[in-house]
TrEMBL record:
This is DUF5805 domain-containing protein. It comes from Haladaptatus pallidirubidus. It comes from the Archaea. InterPro entries: DUF5805.
Length: 130
């Protein structure tokens, strides 16, 4: 992952109901809206093949194939689903995993949330040492 240096603004226009849903989800996760959107975009990108040449035909492709399998299973359980319904169903698993991981790391005092600074911070470095 590239080093974080300068930040820039990204703007998009979405329906008001969608912003309300995102705000609600962000609040449930104690995240800012920006942090929530950034996290969800990154999570979604992990599920799509960016460079098909990097995948092997006969080998495992846990990110691409897993998403395809989950998508097929989800669609098999319903007659039809909208884009928003699919995103909510498939992203929900990520949100649960993220929340569990954050809770475990906070319990182990490896990550802490700072309301003052508006986000999560690492305690003691990646390896747990200062």
């Amino acid at each position: 992952m590239p080093e974080e240096t300068n930040r820039t603004v990204v703007k998009t226009y979405i329906p008001e109901y969608q912003k309300d849903e995102w705000r609600s989800h962000a609040d449930e996760l104690d995240m800012s809206q920006s942090e929530f959107v950034r996290t969800m975009v990154q999570a979604g990108r992990r599920g799509f093949e960016i460079n098909p040449a990097q995948t092997s035909e006969g080998g495992s492709n846990p990110r691409g194939d897993e998403l395809k399998t989950r998508l097929l299973e989800t669609l098999a359980s319903e007659e039809k689903m909208s884009w928003d319904e699919l995103v909510e169903r498939l992203a929900g698993n990520f949100e649960d995993r993220l929340e569990n991981a954050l809770n475990e790391l906070q319990s182990a005092n490896r990550v802490q949330y700072s309301g003052r600074h508006g986000g999560y911070t690492l305690v003691g470095g990646v390896d747990g040492r200062t």
